[in-house]
Amino acid sequence: MTSTTASRPVEAMPAHGSNLSLGSLLRRPEAGAFLGLLAVLIFFAAFGGLTFLKPAGMSSWLNVAANLGIIAIPVGLLMIAGELDISVGAMVPFGAMTVAVISGHYGMSIWLGIAVTMAFGVTVGLINGYMVIRTAVPSLIVTLGSLFAVQGIVLGLTVLITKSTSVALTVEGPAKVIFGDFLFGGQLQVMVIWWLVLTAAYVFFIHFSPKGNWIFAMGGDKVSARNAGIPTDRMTILLFVLSSTSAAFVGMCQAILYNSAQVAGGQSFIFNSIISVVVGGVLLTGGFGSVVGIFFGTITFAIVNQGIYYTDFDRNWSALIIGVLLLLAVLMNNTFRKMALSATTKKKGA
Amino acid sequence: MTAPILALKNINKSFGPIDVLHDINLEVRPGEVLCLLGDNGAGKSTLIKILSGVHQPTTGTIELDGKEVIFPAPRVAQEAGISTVHQFGGTFPLMSIGRSFFVGVEPTKGWGPFKIYDRARANAIAVKAVQDMGITRITDGDRLVGGLSGGERQSLAIARAVHFGARVLILDEPTAALGVKQATHVLRIVNEAKRRGLAVIFITHQVMHAMAVGDHFAVLIRGAVAADFRKGEKTREEITDLMAGGASMASLEGEIEGYMATHDGHPPQAVQA
């Protein structure tokens, strides 16, 4: 007994190098998401051939992943911090309609439309955030309220202003190239670039900057986090602003890309983003997860969503696959989390 | 005898019409463990919350190093060197030891907007701090806090408070949820904190644990200090009786002894179904 305890501190030194071992990789939050992605790739490769990995096939699911991923990451960060935002479902058409009404219906500058859209995104985020921290009502309920309220505003105002539920928008020049075009004249949306850049920024913010630690602490134990000096209220508001602004951004870019905006649509983002986040290994009750995991989760979702077109299956079955995938992912992530909790330095040699 | 670090003078606290604490006078010195004993509802938690800045006293004053202070928020008390460790350690189960140790004060490397969290340094400092407190089983700062035993978590929280310069350590029922062996660990850490010259306020209702580390004891009953005595002045039975509100425990023990005397030394048995 005494000899083993004495030898352990010495062992601890090379422990930093052991992070690349299989066991420690499996204990990372994104392990489940990565394995899920592999499984889905193998599944669709087996049943549909490799068409979906060729450029044309890839752009179909990369476009879906990019639009979803930009929203899923901030939604996932809120979940890590112990909150939920479902109002993103209304923010997508809100963002699309704002830019379309200002720059399409009224014919004002596209840059003004973009600025107002972003400002509306920030405003709704601030309202969500303030309501959550001031009222202590669960954020699911608060954002359910703002989901419906924003939907009402979008439909009511659009019909009032334009007498229609669909508004055309024509954008040319740099705004089109930056926000809503296809890359190299192909089928890949410029959104994919935004998604990759934003993902890299989030990875830095969450996993490398010291502030990322705060978000995990908030989700782990909000009271302790506050006592440790973390400005929990400010961080909560910031995260809500990120998620609603990101959703408005995606809506805006879609309107610029497709040259029109509809009052409906966007609801699918609510569940799809939550599925991507949970498949990506984020714990629904907060405190655990990773941006890379959400990234993998989003790709997995997008492949299932689009891959079905490349198989002989009727596409009506894709929801079944997503449902089963979600349950498997949650079970697998639970297992990996238990492994992470029970992991000790002792097992390192085994 | 050294001067008290922290002294409570005539503290009263009421929530609306309900008086919770009456005229509490207590003091704690460096290198001394003050055990705050009391049954559930005696006002222990309210007293801790006043000390840690969660509540403010209705009347009365708190003195730190002989000067009157006010703690309007937990943060202020913490900056004054008063650290509270709660029953479950107040740590984050799904965070690594290094990350949870430095929550809010993360060490960084790099410059400007590219300052990044220095994982290696955080882990090394955290592991060393815990090992210095005598928990040598913790060697890997990447391990998740949730994988530690209850006693280790308490120790981690205490080590954290000590590392960040706590002068007064308030331990809220640190041994309540622990097994015998784990509790011994925590008591050893309490002794280590005391040896380093910290003033420790140890809240418990386990008289055995209090007697193992305490120098000075105060028993709270219905919000008032019912007894205030030093080590060796009272026996365990006397303290237990005091906590239970006087004679009730003694009379229960008397009843059992009486029963045993009339039943050939057998204690009362549960009625068989």
From TrEMBL, chain A:
Keywords from the named record: Cell inner membrane, Cell membrane, Membrane, Sugar transport, Transmembrane, Transmembrane helix, Transport
Keyword Transmembrane: yes
A Pfam family per the record: BPD_transp_2
Residue stretches spanning the membrane: 31-53, 60-80, 110-133, 139-161, 182-208, 237-257, 269-297, 317-336
Cross-referenced InterPro entries: ABC_transp_permease
Signal sequence range: none
Cellular location(s): Cell membrane
Membrane topology, from the record: Multi-pass membrane protein
Domain of life of the source: Bacteria
Functional summary from the UniProt entry: Part of the binding-protein-dependent transport system for D-xylose. Probably responsible for the translocation of the substrate across the membrane.
Record protein name field: Xylose transport system permease protein XylH
Lineage per the UniProt record: Bacteria, Pseudomonadati, Pseudomonadota, Alphaproteobacteria, Rhodobacterales
UniProtKB/TrEMBL annotation, chain B:
Organism phylogeny: Bacteria, Pseudomonadati, Pseudomonadota, Alphaproteobacteria, Rhodobacterales
Signal sequence bounds: none
Domain ABC transporter: 6-247
Domain of life: Bacteria
Species of provenance: Paragemmobacter amnigenus
A GO term for molecular function: ATP binding
A Pfam family of this chain: ABC_tran
Protein name per its UniProtKB record: ATP-binding cassette domain-containing protein
Record keywords: ATP-binding, Nucleotide-binding
CDD domains, alphabetized: ABC_Carb_Monos_I (cd03216)
